[in-house]
Design brief:
The strands form two sheets. Strands 1-3-2-4-11-5 form a six-stranded mixed β-sheet, sandwiched between helices. Helix 6 (about 150-160) links the parallel strand 7 (about 140-145) and strand 8. It is an alpha/beta fold. It contains 15 helices and eleven strands. About 40% of the residues lie in helices and about 15% in strands. It folds into two domains: about 5-115 and about 220-340, Periplasmic binding protein-like II (D-Maltodextrin-Binding Protein, domain 2), CATH 3.40.190; about 120-210, 3-Layer(aba) Sandwich (D-Maltodextrin-Binding Protein, domain 2). The protein has helices spanning about 15-20, 45-55, 55-60, 70-80, 95-100, 150-160, 175-185, 195-200, 230-235, 240-260, 265-275, 280-285, 300-310, 320-325, 330-340; strands at about 5, 35-40, 60-70, 85-90, 105-115, 120, 140-145, 170, 190-195, 205-210, 225-230. The longest helix has 22 residues, at about 240-260. Residues about 1-30 have low confidence and may be disordered.
Amino acid sequence: MNEIGENVRPVIPALILVSIGLLFVHANGRQGDPVTIALVPNVPAASTFIAADKGYFRDAGLDVKIERIDSLSKAVAFLSTNEVQVGQGGINAGYFSGVTQGLPIVMTLESGSTPLYHQILLRPELKDHIKTVADLKGRKVGISAPGSTSVYEIGMVLASAGLRIKDIDLKYLAFSQMGAALANGALDAALEVAPFSDVAIKQKIAVPWIDPEEGYIHELPLTNVAYIANTDWIKQSPDVARRLFLALAHAGRDYCQAYHHGPNRTEVLDIMVGNKIAADRDLIERMDWQARSPDGAFNLDSVDSVQAFFKQEAIIERTAPRERLVDAGFAQAAAEAFGPFELINQSSKLQGCR
């Protein structure tokens, strides 16, 4: 893993920081408390970079190092040994397996939930042949990764027709490769995300079909991106953990304002591009961003539903008690510190991030 970013000078007035309990003054010039965060550099990760670039970590008395990873599952080993204290990325089967194995990890803040703007796309020549979910039986269906919440989304769609994952020919491809696979016949259908879904439809190599959120996923909002942390570290350094997650929740609210095209949209876009979340600024501006809870609160019913599905499909061997999956205290602390979330752009019609 390589270090890729540090926090910068604060731009939030000190009085505001005192009022929310984030100001932390160090005596004799001592550096902030060290914390390492390993993250998957996607759009929801913008909240971590916002906290760094806008000085929220520094103002909280933290010296935060950010590492890039390509999957949250790869962070679990580092988290369990406290090599990194916090990970951010897509929830997957590896997390649930780790909890059942007794690893010292827990989800602390939600950082991505519905609406996800995912769509099941079809090859254009199949639009008159695949008309119902039952018609997917035996078909080649692309998703991004095994054990991901994408598997859960497809599973919920299939369940509406009495089908299970074993009834389709599941293929794993990067989102960026799905359009080409549909075009050359390697896939019959794919669960795709913006902006790649928009590009494929525009190029007429795919047609939109089903949004899994519309009548198929029953436990909404569905959480699919989260911060997870080492529970031993939380116990040993509770004040450091509290300050860190308040800073991240503060940045999450900034993300939500930008999500709704608030006055900070340009600033957040600059942060995304500057931290190489995306190279194409215009594309990020046009695409649908994933929503989240402004306080980082989880829908525990949704999290438990994903776990139960993974067990049903033999993706994991056992399930963990619901109360072991999530530490709700950090989101509750954020709600108390910041108060009700007030949307600046009241004209926004977007769902989520409210």
